[in-house]
# Entry
Amino acid sequence: MKDEVFASVGDSLGRNQMESVMCLLAKVEELKWYRDATFHTTAWYFSSYNFTVAFIWSPFLVQPETPTVDTHSVRPIRLHLDIPDNVWVNRYHEFDYVLIGDGAGLISLQYYWRTALSLVVTSRWLELIYMNPIHLEMLDVYHLSLPRPDGHPDKYRGVEGTAHDCLHWCLPGPVDAWNDLMMAMILRHEDLLLRRSTLNIVSV
# Structure
């Protein structure tokens, strides 16, 4: 993935997965990292490979009614289902690979993620798709993770008085297996692109 940019867009579960990615990649070389003033974007740069990994905080993928949203609030959160979140949509063209998290929210929240993804690959980005075809793959880790309830921090987060965390994952842990599968998918796609490129050269 030399000279490429890999981005993850999502909520705290997506951030959890990116922490696993960085634990693995940080062994390669000492890296530089950046975080914007809004804390919406964190990026890590590997200079030897001119490779960037970024995480963009967008817990719903669609536009919230107010710029600041407390995702832990019990009050209703108003979302514009027909408007993708500009935090990541305006930067879509910068990325070679984008991991869009389906999140671990309620069924109603998952509907918002699917709505946003549908908008990206149909109307809003139709021109981009024609210029640079988008390759989509789904990675379903539900059944892979189901037998590992021990992989959650639960009550062992080390912070007194906090609720048991049965949403996020310990590192190292099952989330590392997600990234092994994700990298296999990316490498398979890179190999396919290389073969197509070779065929084009031969045909010319």
